[in-house]
Specification:
9 helices; single chain; about 180 residues; AhpD-like
Length: about 180
């Protein structure tokens, strides 16, 4: 475990390019999330990450939030679990559904269930999934393009999970409930 304490950079601590991004985030969200601020230690990291996160995809916002919850649970990232529980609710999930997603299923929606099971298996097995999981994914209506988009979404979330798991900067979202 890390013993180094990471400080969340303030606007004046980051590059001029990141200061502009901070200003835009503050305008859009009302604040700069601590994990985004921490990425601004890198003069180019925050811009690169936001471009990656906001790239075009065949996945809906709700599907991306399901992926974010699954991956963050597997990687035990409390920051991302907290942020994506809130964002999941903003995209139509109930509290109970966010918990079920984190546990690796979605009994309330068969297509989402196939996505969650695929994501869970791909995350745990570093991209690999079993033939039955893949067949179920295709049967649910997803295609080859979806496989690529899900893996890109997994990779994007892993970046944030790993940064928080190392830095342990303070969580500035309502804490996600622990799983029972």
């Amino acid at each position: 475990m890390t013993t180094t304490k990471f400080k969340v950079p303030e606007r004046e601590d980051v590059s001029p390019n990141n200061q502009v991004i901070f200003d835009n985030l503050k305008k859009a969200l009302g604040f700069v999330p601590n994990l985004y601020a921490t990425i601004a230690y890198s003069d180019t990291g925050l811009e690169n990450y936001l471009n990656f996160q906001n790239g075009k995809t065949s996945l809906s916002k709700k599907e991306k939030e399901a992926i974010n919850l699954v991956v963050s649970q597997i990687n035990n990232c409390e920051y991302c679990l907290s942020a994506h529980t809130l964002l999941g609710k903003m995209n139509g999930f109930t509290e109970e559904q966010t918990i079920e997603l984190r546990k690796g299923s979605a009994s309330f929606d068969s297509k989402l269930d196939a996505l969650v099971k695929f994501t869970n298996e791909a995350t745990v097995n570093k991209g690999k999934v079993s033939e039955p999981t893949l067949a179920n994914f295709f049967k649910a209506g997803y295609g080859e393009a979806s496989i690529i988009d899900v893996h890109i979404a997994i990779a994007e979330k892993v970046v944030m999970n790993y940064i928080h798991n190392l830095t342990q900067i303070p969580i500035d979202f309502p804490l996600a409930k622990p799983l029972n």
